[in-house]
Design brief:
By secondary structure, this protein is mainly α. The chain folds into 2 domains: about 60 residues, no CATH class; about 130 residues, Tetracycline Repressor, domain 2 (Orthogonal Bundle), CATH 1.10.357. The protein has 9 helices and no strands. α4 runs parallel beside α7, α5 packs across α8 and α5 crosses α9. The N terminus is likely disordered.
Length: about 200
């Protein structure tokens, strides 16, 4: 009987730990965006958790920053996959992926824009993100959306730069509404595919 009771308790403890970790990471993004030098105690206060709980989950500031970097970049990777880059028509996939990435980058501006996020573990996720982006651009090229001679590595860098510029038009600290996201997504894709010259 005792063994049967341990499993639910173990699951409950894991779920509680996951909730507290998520709360700490979300609070860290919020607090550090306002004050990069904020203490772990300040982060814990915003998360609604005690200092002991914060230090139980993260032994020190470096471990917190490492976890923050991995979490944010993994959410970015998940946002790309949610756009169905392999199965949706390339133009549809480009729109979905771009919208998802813009929303995710807006939610994690501090972490994704910080050099502290360039940890080795996070770098592995970033490599996968770059590979997935190149896969999608390759599909777009095969579908005739991109010139057959286009340098896809250069195109990827331009695509990222366009999204970074579009991000500056989001209201900082707020969740963008659907119309704003759609308009900026369209701006990014149209500029990537057609530039700013006159169209015939």
């Amino acid at each position: 009987m005792r063994l049967r009771m341990e499993k639910p308790m173990g699951r409950a403890l894991r779920a509680d730990a996951e909730r507290s970790v998520r709360a700490i990471l979300e609070a860290a993004e919020q607090v550090l965006a306002d004050d990069p030098g904020a203490s772990m105690e300040q982060i814990g206060e915003v998360a609604g958790l005690t200092r002991t709980t914060v230090h139980r989950r993260f032994a020190n500031r470096k471990s917190l920053m490492d976890a923050l970097a991995i979490s944010a970049k993994q959410q970015l990777a998940d946002a790309i996959e949610a756009g169905n880059p392999d199965s949706a028509p390339p133009l549809v996939a480009l729109h979905r992926v771009t919208a998802n990435v813009l929303k995710t980058k807006n939610a994690w501006r501090f972490t994704l824009g910080s050099p502290l996020a360039d940890t080795s573990a996070a770098a592995e996720i970033w490599d996968r993100i770059n590979a997935r982006c190149l896969d999608l651009l390759t599909r777009a090229q095969r579908d005739g959306l991109l010139h057959p001679d286009a340098d896809l590595e250069w195109t990827r860098q331009v695509y990222y730069a366009l999204m970074s510029e579009a991000l500056q038009r989001f209201p900082e600290g707020e969740d963008p509404d659907a119309s704003t996201t759609d308009a900026l997504t369209t701006l990014v894709i149209d500029t990537l595919l057609y530039g700013t010259g006159r169209r015939n």
